[in-house]
From TrEMBL:
Keywords: Cell wall biogenesis/degradation, Disulfide bond, Metal-binding, Secreted, Signal, Vacuole, Zinc
GO cellular component: extracellular region; vacuole
Protein name in the entry: Inactive metallocarboxypeptidase ECM14
Cited InterPro entries: CARBOXYPEPT_ZN_1, Peptidase_M14
GO biological process assignments: cell wall organization; proteolysis
Residues spanning the signal sequence: 1-23
Described function: Inactive carboxypeptidase that may play a role in cell wall organization and biogenesis.
Keyword Disulfide bond: yes
MF GO annotations: metallocarboxypeptidase activity; zinc ion binding
SUPFAM superfamilies: Zn-dependent exopeptidases (SSF53187)
Gene3D superfamilies cross-referenced by the UniProt entry: Zn peptidases
Top-level division of the source organism's lineage: Eukaryota
Length: 565
């Protein structure tokens, strides 16, 4: 077997890849049953010793009693795990790491231009390195090197002394809600509060029931100036802002609620948002995966899938973003229920994905709705992705429009206080290598994908439902905390995304400059910046590219031309 001898010989390479913080150990018996079984199978197949030799010992402060404390329980569950970042630069490296992650049932956290982040048990590291070329065995480093994974998770959870949000009309309630991540038991009452406080333009709706019977709730925000009794009335243009498709991506849920709250409270105060709410309906879905989200709070903070049973009793859950009907490729991905990206036995098997699609199709066929945009929030890696996800061999018919708006969204995100950079690319381009060619220009080479991309919500809404502008936005950060983004980022991330959503609305209105925005944009030195406007709540809006005076070197058109060379 190809990894039999290599698994033990690579033990000496561990010190190059894993520093002291990666060598600590905790009892394996406390891990989830499915993880213990897969680790056991991997150890047997690749002949990994039952007890690994420690590289360097590090004393750990033990929280006692472990079984009764949160820190102890987290250490027992996640203490053996580590997240490694591999720098990938060639097609052979990308192919090798993709095959290895599939063979070893590993949890791929993120992949971007030239790196792949993978979570795995520390005693599986020799097996992984044994399957990789020498160039990758020394091209890896742990994320969060200063803290154990369990400690980072512990810090991301609400503390016991943190004030809890209670639905109330008091002004301070709003601030408390976004001071920390909120469980489903708080989000649902908050949504009901919003609909009851602002009945003129907010309505609580349900997309259906999850597998475990929870409501998939959403807020419909908008004002209808049209006559509903008119049979010839125009179709209502509608924009979807969704989060929580993957349960562990808490920042996507918090960001969706932040945008909803700001938009709701700005109606009647801001002429910009009053116009946008009269021009569009906005559907906010904080958590499309309520069962999985609840499970991340009660049991496993890093749970990704829904909670639906699979053919393997100890491996529950289907990846909702791999189970939509367009270009579903679950049969080609091996159909391993223990995989974090398991697509089910057939398309639409995941209950929540089917509910989402059925609701959207019913809206278009029976409720006179025209979906004009989808913004599906995820984390992490700071990217604005557009169709197609399933393959780079097919180009979407509106590629230039998708690229143009994606660049504008990314620029508006960068214009915030923290200047976080967001990459724009097709969702199919998991890894891209840029090589220098003659004349100093860069040639783009698309490397093999680390995960398959078929059956995505992004592709289905774009291709099957005809949503002209469909995007998946991966929020903060770039890997320092991964899915455990500290709560201090909730409001700054919400403000960044609010800017992007404002830009989206203006773009769909044709880039018109609303009266209150004219002349308000200021640089720090007091001079106006062309194409950028300051709005309520410090939101920055970037003018639609085609209304700028010319396509200079800093314009989105120039960036587009540069990308195509």
């Amino acid at each position: 077997m190809r990894g039999l001898h290599a698994a033990t010989s690579t033990l000496t390479l561990l010190s190059l890849c894993i520093p002291t913080t990666c060598a600590t150990s905790h009892p394996q018996s406390q891990q989830p049953s499915w993880r213990r079984i897969t680790n056991h199978l991997v150890a047997k197949i690749w002949n990994v010793p039952a007890v690994q030799m420690p590289l360097r010992e590090k004393k750990i402060h033990v929280v006692t009693p472990a079984a009764e404390s949160r820190a102890g329980r987290l250490a027992a569950r996640y203490g053996q795990d580590i997240v490694l970042r591999f720098n990938v630069s060639t097609a052979s490296e990308a192919r090798a790491i993709a095959e290895a992650t599939e063979d070893l049932y590993l949890d791929v956290w993120a992949f971007n231009d030239n790196y792949v982040d993978i979570r795995l048990a520390k005693n599986i590291v020799p097996s992984l390195l044994g399957l990789l070329p020498t160039s990758l065995q020394t091209a890896c480093a742990p994320l969060m090197p200063e803290s154990a994974l369990a400690e980072v998770i512990d810090r991301s959870l609400p503390s016991a002394d943190q004030p809890t949000f209670t639905p109330s009309l008091k002004p301070s309630s709003e601030d408390i809600f976004f001071q920390d991540y909120q469980p489903l038991s708080v989000i649902s009452p908050w949504m009901r509060l919003m609909s009851s406080m602002f009945p003129t333009h907010v309505r609580l709706i349900s997309l259906g029931l999850s597998y475990e019977g929870r409501e998939i709730e959403a807020l419909r925000v908008g004002v209808h100036p049209t006559n509903n009794d008119d049979p010839d009335r125009p179709r209502r243009k509608t924009i979807i802002i969704s989060g929580g498709l993957h349960a562990r991506e808490w920042i996507s849920t918090s960001t969706a609620t932040y945008i909803a709250q700001k938009m709701i409270t700005q109606y009647g105060k801001s002429s910009t948002w009053t116009t946008l709410l009269e021009s569009f309906d906005w559907i906010f879905i904080p958590t499309l995966n309520p069962d999985g989200y609840e499970y991340t709070w009660s049991t496993d903070r890093l749970w990704r899938k829904n909670r639906q049973p699979t053919p393997l009793r100890f491996c529950r859950g289907i990846d909702l973003d791999r189970s939509f009907g367009f270009q579903w490729d679950g049969d080609a991905s091996g159909g391993n229920p223990c995989s974090e990206s398991y697509a089910g036995e057939e398309a639409w098997q995941a209950v929540e994905s089917r509910r989402f699609a059925d609701w959207a199709r019913n809206e278009t066929e029976n409720n006179n709705v025209e979906f004009t945009a989808l913004v599906d929030l995820h984390s992490y890696s700071q990217q604005v992705l557009y169709p197609y996800s399933y393959s780079c061999a097919a180009s979407p018919p509106t590629l230039e429009n998708l690229e143009e708006l994606a660049l504008g969204l990314a620029k508006s995100l960068r214009q915030g206080n923290h200047h976080h950079f967001y990459k724009t690319t097709s969702a199919c381009e998991g890894n891209v290598n840029f090589n220098s060619v003659k004349g100093g220009r860069k040639k783009k080479t698309i490397l093999p994908r680390i995960e398959r991309g078929g059956g995505s919500a992004l592709d289905w809404f774009y291709h099957e439902l005809g949503v002209k502008y469909a995007y998946q936005v991966k929020l903060r950060d770039m890997g320092s905390y991964g899915f455990m983004l500290p709560k201090e980022n909730i409001i700054p991330q919400g403000r960044e995304m609010m800017q992007a959503v404002t830009y989206l609305g203006r773009y769909l209105l044709g880039g018109q400059v609303l009266k209150e925005d004219e002349g308000l944009a200021k640089k720090k030195d007091g001079r106006a910046e062309e194409g950028v406007h300051i709005m309520d709540d410090d939101a920055v809006v970037v003018e639609k590219p085609h209304v700028m005076k010319e396509a200079g070197e800093q314009s989105p058109q120039f960036e587009l031309r540069k990308r195509r060379r």
